[in-house]
Amino acid sequence: NIKGIIFDLDGVICSTDEYHYQAWKSIADDEGIYFDRKINERLRGVSRAESLEIILERAAAVYSPEEKAALMEKKNNIYRELLKNMGPGDVTEEVRSTLRELKERGYGLAIGSSSKNTRFILERTALTDAFDGISDGNMISRSKPDPEVFIKAAGILGLKNEECFVIEDAISGINAANAAGFHSVGIGPAAECDEAEFKISFFSEILDI
Ligand code: G6P
Ligand code: MG
Description:
By secondary structure, the chain is α/β, with parallel strands linked by helices. It has helices at residues 16-31, 37-40, 48-56, 65-83, 93-104, 118-124, 148-157, 171-179, and strands at residues 4-7, 108-112, 133-135, 164-168, 183-187, 198-200. 41% of the residues lie in helices and 12% in strands. Helix 1 (16-31) crosses helix 4 (65-83). Magnesium ion binds next to loops.
């Protein structure tokens, strides 16, 4: 008996995953570290700090905590500049009308994203009001595959975990959802993994599950 739907943001609601890639790519190039789109797949759903650790696996040098903090800040500044290009047109009509329809059907709708830029992105794309609750990277101490961000989202909706779908493009997010008894729905890369309870190939298919 599903009463709520928790959406990942990057790669599900909008395509900021490409901006994350470009920003990290620019950092890696500056540092002379090899980085490509395949490695980038491992950053889906993973926090900024853990993303940097994955990139630094291929670094020749050892980075101090201060140097890591500086790289994260630099990455975020590049990323935020890229986000300024975003507007309402960066969310498809399919996503908007599906969210409207789900709301009309009475579901509680929430965001469950590891991103600390969640609110900024929702404002830029004029989506803040589409959700009843927002659980984001500023509210958690452990990122996906830990389920903390989804548990917080269900709490905001006032629902039990097992009453919610979690829509995810990241395998880390599917694992997070499964770990805490949510019903996981994979889209994009996460629709390829065995762990996803449901798999959809386009967003509006949520209406048919
Ligand atoms: C999302 C993305 C990750 C990103 C994380 C943190 O989960 O899928 O790739 O690293 O958010 O984003 P932030 O905006 O806080 O750097
Ligand atoms: Mg994602």
